[in-house]
Amino acid sequence: MFTGIIQELGSVAALHNHSGGAKIKIAALTVTEGTGNGDSISVNGVCLTVLNITPASFEADVSQETLDRSTLGDLKTGSPVNLERAVTPSTRLGGHIVQGHVDGRGTFLAAVQSGDFWTIRIGFPKDLAQYFVYKGSVSVEGISLTIAALADDYFEIAVIPKTWELTNLSSLAPGDAVNLEADVIAKYVERIMQVRKEPLETITHETLRKAGFV
């Protein structure tokens, strides 16, 4: 599990495709500290299992399912990537609960600067629309962000200077694909509705309390 607070902007050192998936090597200096083989690191929002770790890099195997659902297969040598180590019991939850299980690809549509701040617009596929709410949380490229404006097929996010500087958002161009992960709570609520076969308006406070959400 992650919090969506990026710890380092690393880069792709190598990406080798093979039958059934790929192996990726990431150059990094911060997230490798205290990390061992078998631990988890989020790469652009994708939870990967660390292999062959050194003080300056780590490798990971990427399944074909992950390549198909995420943007990892589009990366090239030198591409900047957002990195975060998995949380520990003492970690501050500065963002929101991020599993590193990408739900789908969005599209970076635009970035507008206002002073030192930026407003970015992200398009999303129709099948993810029900998971996004105004002022709700979303993971974009592994970054915990808050939706500041919402339309039928895109949302906008206000980005502070620190996030713009320390993540790969500043390197994206209109039309680039991005990894999206919806807030897991929204997915659990959807599942409750499916199992109980209740329309949204009949989901009561007591239903949510019994499910452990409130």
Summarize the structure.
This protein is mainly β.
Overview of the structural elements:
The chain is mainly beta and 214 residues long. The protein has three domains: 8-85, Elongation Factor Tu (Ef-tu), domain 3 (Beta Barrel); 104-183, Beta Barrel (Elongation Factor Tu (Ef-tu), domain 3); 184-214, no CATH class. It is built from four helices and 13 strands. A hairpin with a 2-residue loop joins strand 3 and strand 4. The relative contact order is 0.17. The model has no long low-confidence stretch (mean pLDDT 92).
Strand order of the largest sheet: 4-3-7-1-2-6-5
| CA-atom Rg in angstroms | 18 Å
SS elements, strand count: 13
**Low confidence ranges:** none
Q: End-to-end span in angstroms?
A: 21 Å
| Strand content bin | 35-45%
CATH topology of the largest domain: Elongation Factor Tu (Ef-tu), domain 3
Instruction: Quote the average pLDDT.
Output: 92
Cα shape: globular
What is the percent of helical residues? 10-25%
Architecture (CATH level 2) name of the largest domain: Beta Barrel
* Order of helix and strand elements from N to C terminus: EEEEEEHEEEEEEHEHH
Helix-strand category: mainly beta
Give the number of helices: 4
